[in-house]
User: Fold this.
Amino acid sequence: MAEIARIRCDIQKLRRLNTEQKSFIPHGTLDSCLTRETIKAALTYCKLEASTVPQVVRTIEDGAKKTFAILILAKEPSSIIRFIEHDALLDRTLDSQIPFAKEDLQRIIPHAATDFDELQWQFAAPLFSQQLSHRWFRPDTRLPFLESALIGSGGFGKVFRVKLPAGHHAFAGISPSHVSATSCRES
Assistant:
């Protein structure tokens, strides 16, 4: 029990506050908390059948670390089995489905759907690159802006200079963390 609490605490320590004072987990930081050893320790807490543990560890390592971390924070780590059972053997990772639709969560983990839905947004902060055109974000999306300053405005919106964690952008030739972002008006 103490090991799972330590893992939960380690995940919570990764949280950063954005400019709206909402927490998010920076992209790529879970690897320090969810190593093969800590994943096995957490699964031991779940009391899974020994024969299923290697497959579950592989699934988590190959693309379910965010999903598993959310379940650990929700105090439901054993529910990772339910997500694996509902993956429909599709060629996609569990983490690629974040944010999960509320209806899907109700089907997969009805007892913890609300907690998972609220926590998943901490792990769904977008990644930015130069190849992106305009995007619309859902209201629950937590933009990973650590700092924000208005630098201009016009008829179509406002332009901000924002600071992003290193793992949330792939801009070539630009300062490691400061970029401009435009907030457009809704029509």
Summary: Residues 63 and 92 are 8 Å apart (CA to CA). The mean pLDDT is 88. The chain has two domains: 2-123, 128-184.
